[in-house]
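#struct-queue
[09:14] JT: dropping the first one here, sequence first, then the structure tokens:
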Amino acid sequence: MKNIAIASSDSALDQAIMFLLQDNYHIFNIQLNDQLANSLQNKSIDLLIVDLKSINPESMGLIQIIKRLQPNLPVVMLYDLKMPEKFVVDFFQMADLMLRKPFSNQQLINAVSTFLNGSQRLGNV
């Protein structure tokens, strides 16, 4: 079963994503902090979902490190219109998909399925 890591500070969003995807994927939360290496020690990640509300300069650096270690790791970033302006270019460079909230359940299911079943890159939705 493929592993999806969620980095978010919104527990309601986390639970909704877990409920939506739990039948087909193993889903777990990670914290984008200095304990990240410990939380990933015995886990592999096949897809990373990041809620941009949980991002700060330090956590952006951690995502960049993860991407360097796993260059083929798909990253789906969830954002709303309150996206921090100073990071916009970095977000679009790190993300394989920027998914604007609110999004439909089907949009997320399609994106996850596309990445984890070997289909092409999606771009921005």
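[09:21] JT: and here's the second one, same format:
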Amino acid sequence: MVLPPLALALEVFGWSGYAAAQLRRMTRPIPRLLAAYGVWLGTSALLTLDVAAVAGASVGADAAGRHPPARRWHLGAAMLGANTGSLLLPFSNLTNLVLVGATGIGFASYVAASAAPQFAAAIAVGAMLVWRAHRSGDLPAADDVPGEALAPARVAGLVAAAGAGGAIAFGLLGLDMALPFAAASGLLTAGVVAAGRARPRDVVRSLPIGALLLVAAAAALYGPLSSWAEALPHPGGGASGLAEALVVGGTAAALVNNLPAAALGAVWLGHVSPSVVVAYLVGTNVVAVATPHGSAATMLVRAGAHRQGVHLPAAEHVRDAWRYAVVGGLAAIAALALTRG
């Protein structure tokens, strides 16, 4: 509820334009694409994948310039970065919060288990992105020189970063991680409304009605999910258990969506080790990118691309995205198997 208004406020204050301007200072196309991917990894980890996905559509289009194929590559980088970077912290993705809350894992224990698979998945997906983009030849150099960044954009970015830092501190102290984000979102949202840059109804319209409906649907399905979960063999703590959790989480997310998949995991996993929870989340966060409806971030980027005049066909997404899902999922699960306690 608080993060979409935060994304709206960042957009109104010009943060997207600021980010795009910095990226377009890099005239070499492949480094610019890789830098954009890194921005969305970091934004997703610290400000959640929803903020990364909302901002990624407009920044991706601006950073790519006027070349249509380059726009598609940058929007793809935003989609991949938002999804792949959402594993690191408990608040990076709503799916993480659902599983962490249901299984009773502490903040530090979760991060200790998620760090290695997060970096492995990020590197593997980034390498695949760069390799495929280089082979395509669809990335020209920047076609103009960006202007100077506005001070409000930098200030808004610092406020949002402070909210993320506060959420990390609250998590380590065992407090409610939503409160610092709510404070940052409230401050920035009040600022854009008071300045006349946005109307209250714009803030209301920014709320993710589709995602909220998915949450409600997952809650309504809690009973049937319990029955289905009982039919699944409970994963052990070994390598086979990690693989089982990955396959179940990834399959459920790719077929339906990662929010109902998280609800299934909350019922199925119970009190398991942090490594098994992270393995399941690799499926719901990384493997979920294989389908257009697998995660909220993918749907948000696709919707934003449509508003930017860039069409991303569903069939084309399925044809290409499975490569990233497989590479990222395998890299993450291998790192998790090697580093689990």
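[09:30] RK: nice, looked through the second one.
[09:31] RK: The chain is about 75% helix and 0% strand.
[09:31] JT: good to know. The CA atoms of residues 38 and 81 lie 7 Å apart.
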